[in-house]
Amino acid sequence: MPSPISPLGIGGLLPGIQLPGETKSPGAFQNVLQDAIKNVENFRHSADKGVEAFLSGEGEDLHQAVLATQRAELAFELFLQVRNKVVQAYQEVMRMQM
After folding, report:
1. Residue 85's pLDDT band (cuts 50, 70, 90)
2. Which one in 7, 16, 34, 78 has a CA-CA gap of 20 to 30 Å to 85?
3. Cα dihedral sign for 67, 1, 41, 33?
């Protein structure tokens, strides 16, 4: 039986996002990034296992392997875009004159 498609959004990739005005412990930003990297790696690992299972003929369907691969690719692209925005914001803050 095919597994249901779960939505892939920033909430699933970056679960530690907080609203403005909320305070968190020091190092919370680092923890959010580490969790996001772990999630992207889990998607990649799942896709690798799905492709290997399909190629070895262990009963994995082609569409499930392709969906897992696409899910991993989308998670990586989303993480890359978030990273680019963070770097861009950092560079803009560094250009500000005091």
Report:
1. very high
2. 7
3. positive
